[in-house]
Amino acid sequence: MDNKISQGENYWKNRPLIDKKHSDWREKDGNWIDAYWNSRLHPHRALIMKELKELVPFHSVLEVGCNCGPNLWNIKQEYPGVRVFGIDINKYCILKAIKYLPEGNFSLGEVDKIPFPDKSFDILLTDAVLIYVGPKKIKKVIKEFIRVTKKAMIFVEWKGNSKLGEVQYSHWARDYSALLKDFGLTCKLIKIPKEIWSSPNWAELGYIFVCPIA
C-alpha cells in the first residue's frame, strides 16, 4: 500500500500543466493549478490564518507542498513583513507561484529532503500533503520538518486511528498526536467543520494540527 500511495507522489511530481483527467477544485478546463490559485479564499484557509494569529510574532513561514501559493498569499496579505517560502515537487506549481506571488521564495523540493539549513523557519505549514506520505516514510518526514522549524508546525491533514497511517479514501490518515509524542511534542487538534469544507472526505477526516516546537 505504501508503494501505491508513493505513486501518488509521482503523480503530483509529473502532473502536466493541463490535466483533464482529474478535477481538484471542480475546474472543467483541466487548468488545475489556476484552480488552486482561485481557491485562495476557500474558508479552510481562514482557519489556518486563525491559528497563525495565535503564534504571533513570527517572521518566516515555509509551506511544504505549496502548489502555486494560495496559503502563502493569504499570509502575505495579513503579515506583509513576514518572509514566505514554498517548496513543491511539481515544476509547474513553482513557476506559477513565482508568477502569482513574486515577493515569495519558491523552489523545487521534496517533503523528506527540504533544501534549507537547520532552524530556518519560524512556522512550517502543510495543507493536504501528508495524506500522500505512507508509514515507511512519515517519521523521516516529521524529523525533517522539525529540523528546519523553530517555533511551530501546522498540518492541515486527515485524522485516523493509526500512528503511522491507515488508508481512508485512497489517502493516508493518521493519529498525529500519537506520532508527535514519539518526538517529544504535543499538538492541538481543530476539527474542520463540514460547513467550512463540505467535501465528504474532508468533512469526516479533516483536521488542523498545531504543534509547537519551542
What does this protein structure show overall?
- This protein is of the alpha/beta class and 214 residues long.
- The protein is built from eight helices and nine strands.
- The termini are far apart.
- Residues 61-151 form the Methyltransferase domain.
- It comes from candidate division CPR3 bacterium.
- This is Methyltransferase domain-containing protein.
Low-confidence stretches: 1-6
Please summarize the sheet with the most strands. 7 strands, mixed
Shape: globular
SS summary, helix count: 8
- What portion of the residues fall into strands of 2 or more residues? 15-25%
Q: How many separate structural domains?
A: 1
Sketch the topology as an H/E string, one letter per element.
HHHEHEHEEHEEEHEHE
Helicity level: 25-40%
The SS-based structural class is: alpha/beta
Strand order, biggest sheet? 3-2-1-4-5-9-8
What fold name goes in the CATH topology slot? Answer: Rossmann fold
Mean pLDDT: 93
N- to C-terminal distance? 35 Å
CATH architecture classification name: 3-Layer(aba) Sandwich
GO biological process, one term: methylation
Pfam families: Methyltransf_25
Keywords: Methyltransferase, Transferase
Protein name: Methyltransferase domain-containing protein
What features would you highlight for this structure?
214 residues; alpha/beta; seven-stranded mixed β-sheet; two-stranded antiparallel sheet; globular; disordered N terminus; methyltransferase activity; Methyltransf_25; methyltransferase; transferase
Compact overview of the structure:
The chain is α/β, with parallel strands linked by helices and 214 residues long.
